[in-house]
Design brief:
Elements lengths: L3 E6 L4 H12 L4 E8 L3 H11 L3 E4 L2 H10 L7 E4 L2 H7 L6 E4 L7 H9 L3 E4 L2 H6 L1 H10 L4 E3 L2 H10 L7 E8 L16 H4 L9 H9 L1 H14 L6 E5 L5 E7 L4 E5 L5 H9 L30 H12 L3 H17 L7 H12 L8 H24 L1
Parallel strand pairs: 1-2, 1-5, 2-3, 3-4, 5-6, 6-7, 8-9
Antiparallel strand pairs: 8-10, 10-11
């Protein structure tokens, strides 16, 4: 394998951390060309020292100024600041793969810019695909760019579909751990941030961990699967699978089901995207069938976790509805993490915003960004109203 030149957007987050561990284990196979962070300049500084990128981006303007003052001379590394730094790094010359590991809508423009250059994108920034699914996948097709999914579930689907061109999909089986509260009885309104972040199987960033706790994450992943694999929602089945061993499966017209199994560790789907189409030794625990006592499956509880129903309804509605869903949920989740609202207020805020939304079908980028801004403003208003009560 020739050395791959890679850019990592969001290198200081959980996805970026795991990606750099994978790259470190394949010394010489990869060259880090660019890195970005939101504001974690201390970790970014350590990454610069270790991986010697050609350029870095820092989204927070204040952190960018602080970084520039302390790194006046950094061996020719170029510095970019602000949200636009994501696009600058994503479009650096001579890049083979862009790994988008940023959280939220902030990653959309950089994703589209990379796809317009015909680049392969390892996509972990699910919000970009959810808010602009038709635009993103259409751009990838137009410029013959490849999207390699990094989410464990969509990586599993992608792997199951490899070599199956021409075979009709009967349905996609999207598995869900159920998060930390699936078996919790009673009222969830008193749930603490600490308990919401205590995922039983996965180590993830805070936002996605809360989404897993509300099951919003599974609804968002259904929308992702719909756009990535062009499968209608009535052919996507969500199944609670507490052990997180089967990461997803695909059933074909002949009733055969192909599934991807492994212990829950994000290093595997990240490595698969980085080394694709090759498979290489991955430093995770190997699965031993003789040690598996049981694999459990159940239907999701839509009444207990209303975020899941809201997400699927928005996905079926299409147009700007998924964008509004994602934006309002993002505001609500960060409000919960900041101690401003209760756990059970998250779906209330999302539903309030969706109820006020007038959908635009087949939106362009400006329409999507305007819908995102509108939803965030209204969600913030709803948060403040709940704070006063």
């Amino acid at each position: 394998m020739k050395q791959k030149r890679i850019v990592i957007l969001g290198s200081t987050g959980s996805i970026g951390d795991s990606a750099l561990k994978v790259i470190n284990s394949f010394y010489g196979d990869f060259k880090i060309v660019g890195l970005t962070t939101g504001a974690n300049i201390e970790k970014l500084s350590r990454q610069i020292k270790r991986f010697k990128p050609e350029a870095v981006g820092i989204v927070s303007p204040q952190s960018f100024q602080n970084f520039k003052q302390s790194h006046a001379a950094s061996n020719g590394v170029k510095f970019y600041g602000g949200v636009e730094s994501l696009e600058k790094i994503a479009t650096l010359p001579d890049v083979d793969l862009v790994l988008s590991g940023v959280v939220g809508a902030v990653g959309l423009k950089a994703l589209l810019s990379a796809l317009r250059m015909g680049r392969s994108v390892a996509l972990a920034n699910k919000e970009s695909l959810i808010m602009a699914g038709e635009l993103v996948t259409g751009t990838a097709r137009k410029y013959k760019a490849q999207i390699l999914p990094v989410d464990s579930e969509h990586s599993a689907m992608f792997q199951c579909l490899e070599g199956q061109k021409g075979n009709s999909i009967h349905k996609i089986i999207l598995t869900a751990s159920g998060g930390p509260f699936y078996r919790t009885r009673g009222d969830l309104s008193k749930v603490s941030v600490e308990k919401a972040l205590a995922h039983p199987n996965w180590i993830m960033g805070k936002k996605i961990t809360v989404d897993s706790a509300t099951l919003m994450n599974k609804g968002l992943e259904a929308i992702e699967a719909h756009y990535l694999f062009q499968v209608p929602f009535d052919r996507i089945q969500i199944v609670i699978h507490r052990q997180s061993i089967i990461h997803s499966a695909v059933e074909f017209e002949d009733s055969s089901i192909l599934a991807q199994l492994s212990y829950p560790d994000m290093c595997l789907p990240i490595q698969y995207a980085l080394t694709y189409p090759q498979r290489k030794t991955c430093p995770i625990q190997r699965l031993d069938f003789t040690q598996l006592k049981r694999l459990d499956f159940a239907k999701p509880d839509f009444r207990k976790f209303p975020c899941l129903a809201l997400a699927l309804a928005a996905g079926r509605d299409g147009g700007t509805a998924p964008c509004v869903l994602s934006a309002s949920n993002e505001v609500a989740v960060y409000a919960f993490l900041g101690g401003r609202i209760r756990f059970t207020d998250i779906p209330k805020i999302v539903e309030t915003v969706l109820d006020r939304h007038e959908k635009t079908s087949k939106p362009d980028l400006e329409m999507i960004l305007e819908a995102d801004r509108w939803a965030r403003d209204l969600a913030e208003t709803a948060v403040r109203k709940l704070e006063r009560n």
